[in-house]
Design goal:
The radius of gyration is 21 Å and the shape is globular. It is α/β, with parallel strands linked by helices. The protein is 38% helix and 17% strand. The protein is built from 14 helices and 15 strands. It folds into two domains: 148 residues, Aspartate Aminotransferase, domain 1 (Alpha-Beta Complex), CATH 3.90.1150.10; 272 residues, Type I PLP-dependent aspartate aminotransferase-like (Major domain) (Aspartate Aminotransferase, domain 2). The strands form three sheets. The protein has a seven-stranded mixed sheet, with helices on both faces. A four-stranded mixed sheet has the order 1-2-3-13. The protein binds pyridoxal-5'-phosphate. Pyridoxal-5'-phosphate binds next to helix 4.
């Protein structure tokens, strides 16, 4: 356990955190010898598991050659190779990668690129973003402003730029009984268009969305056809489509990019988490030719920058992670083990009186907890069921990613699962078994 006299400002000041000392495969060990199955990849980060020797070796080689060279003086071979690797496999139209140190920075850069695009192309009156409720795009001020997580936003509201929020894709709660999934998706897309028309479409810079919703409401899947309509609407009104695949991307849902399954390509896309798998802090904004072309024809630069852009060791880590995922065919395992996880979740929770929904794609799935399955009434938020489940899971050697505020930032509880892509069938069984025990223990408290 950490010393009570810690000088680290931890996330929760009253909590004593175990000290993580060792990671191997899907397991993390603490200083007291306890082992935890990492069934959430931390926060959907550790896609290759912990301690992969090839990633470590690639990072060491890069450190021995060169750790850091500021991007205003140099490019590096490793950044060039990583960009080429990503662009080769990116959605149509993506031509460049801008390397940052995480998801919030990737989103922040995407928002600024989108704004600068319209300044360069003679539409400086475009000044607001439209995004969705129950979303998360990062904790820096720009990303927080477009995010729709009420709890995270509330106390910082005076510092946040204006953004308009439309409904999330949350079929379990918001699809009408007489509506097909397709019709529900069409209704949500129509709401986006109505919002653009109300705000004044020529004042909107972009529509921002997680392709599959992540931490805030737990693996919210887009209904079929929704993103195709969204793409059309954005095009009709000259609005950029900015996808946030920081959590759901880089293989987590079974394809490298979640938007591949929707048949759409964004103008800008943020990636992070699974990109470097936790071996180094890295993220990227993937940029379309259209935007790079406007910068080229205009000011000739993107007016932004951080000290650690394109950090060579982080790039080496990400390139190694991506190379191993591809070489070892791990996305096939994500699809197979994702199906197995769904099977086990349905077997364990499908008839559970306090589990209302099981949802998600690939190794990115969630259960939503309810007091009453019939009415979908959530538990009293004061009970903090999500925190109890996390505690009970940790006590059983299991890391999962529970969150409260699933419905509206205040009510509702869910548990997100996002294990590394290397999980075996036996691992999946163990994860769901331990989660079942943790949920029942938390409910019994
Ligand atoms: N976007 C999404 C969808 C995320 O899930 C997150 C983090 O959870 C972020 C952005 C922010 O990323 P980071 O925490 O690396 O800044």
């Amino acid at each position: 356990m950490t010393s009570p006299s810690t000088h680290v400002l931890h996330r929760t000041l009253s909590h004593t955190y175990p000290v993580a000392v060792w990671g191997e495969g899907i397991t993390i060990r603490d200083s007291e010898g306890r082992a935890y199955i990492d069934a959430s990849g931390g926060a959907a980060v550790s896609c290759l598991g912990h301690g992969h020797p090839e990633v470590g070796a690639a990072m060491k080689r890069q450190i021995d050659a060169l750790s850091y060279a500021h991007t205003s003086f140099f490019t590096t071979e490793v950044a060039e190779r990583l960009a080429a690797h990503l662009v080769d496999r990116a959605p149509q139209g993506i031509s460049h990668a801008y390397f940052v140190s995480g998801g919030s920075e990737a989103m922040e850069a995407a928002l600024k690129m989108a704004r600068q695009y319209f300044v360069e192309t003679g539409e400086p009156q475009r000044r607001v973003f439209v995004a969705r409720r129950q979303s998360y795009h990062g904790n820096t001020l720009g990303a927080l402003a477009v995010g729709g997580n009420e709890w995270r936003r509330a106390q910082f509201a005076p510092l946040l730029v204006d953004a308009h929020h439309v409904s999330p894709t949350y079929a379990y709660r918001n699809r009408r009984a007489d509506e097909t999934l397709e019709a529900y998706g069409a209704r949500l897309a129509a709401e986006l268009e109505e919002t653009l028309l109300r705000v004044g479409p020529d004042s909107v810079i972009g529509f921002v969305a997680e392709t599959v919703g992540g931490a805030t409401a737990g693996a919210l899947e887009p209904p079929p056809g929704y993103f195709a309509r969204v793409r059309e609407i954005c095009d009709r009104h000259g609005v950029l489509l900015i996808l946030d695949e920081v959590m759901c991307g880089m293989g987590r849902t079974g394809t490298l990019h979640a938007c591949e399954q929707e048949g759409v390509a964004p103008d800008l896309m943020a990636i992070a988490k699974g990109m470097g798998g936790g071996y180094a802090p890295i993220g990227a904004t993937l940029v379309s030719e259209r935007i790079v072309g406007a910068f080229q024809a205009g000011s000739g630069l993107f007016q932004h920058g951080h000290t650690y852009l394109g950090h060579a060791v982080a790039c080496a880590a990400a390139l190694a992670v991506q190379t191993v995922i591809e070489r070892d065919g791990l996305l096939a395992n994500v699809r197979a083990m994702g199906a197995a996880m769904r099977e086990d979740l349905v077997a364990r929770f499908g008839a559970h009186r306090h589990v209302g929904d099981i949802r998600g794609r690939g190794l990115f799935q969630a259960i939503e907890l309810v007091a009453d399955r019939g009415t979908k009434e959530p538990f009293d938020p004061a009970r903090k069921l999500h925190a109890r489940i996390k505690r009970e899971a940790m006590a059983r050697g299991l890391m999962v990613y529970p969150m409260g505020g699933t419905i509206d930032g205040r009510r509702g509880d869910h548990v997100l699962l996002a294990p590394p892509y290397i999980v075996s069938r036996a691992d999946v069984t163990e994860i769901v078994d331990r989660l079942g025990a943790a949920v029942d223990a938390a409910l019994a408290e």
